[in-house]
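TA notes, week 10

Several of you asked for a full example with nothing omitted. So below is the full record: structure tokens for the whole chain, then the designed sequence directly under it. When grading your own attempts, check the secondary structure regions first.
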């Protein structure tokens, strides 16, 4: 058996794609949950901000989690598409 035989695609090392997709999904989900809770249970918000202290906390969590989680999720999807293209032999 030659030492330079190609490895099957199922044995590729973990490059972090799965973690990016997991954490990005969790962060976006957390931000959306915070936004929904802000609107439904925590008093909502107006042009001056949230109406309760807990509402402010939910607003801060939503405004931090949704953009950063979306970036992680987009990076994970891009890496997944790249790996899929490499595995197909493009």
């Amino acid at each position: 058996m030659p030492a330079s035989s190609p490895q099957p695609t199922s044995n590729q090392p973990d490059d972090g794609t799965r973690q990016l997709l997991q954490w990005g999904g969790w962060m976006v989900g957390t931000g959306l949950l915070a936004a929904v809770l802000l609107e439904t249970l925590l008093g909502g918000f107006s042009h001056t901000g949230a109406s309760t202290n807990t509402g402010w906390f939910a607003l801060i969590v939503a405004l931090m989690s949704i953009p950063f989680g979306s970036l992680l999720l987009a990076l994970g999807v891009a890496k997944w598409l790249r790996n899929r293209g490499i595995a197909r032999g493009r």
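The mean pLDDT is 88. Use that as a sanity check on your answer.
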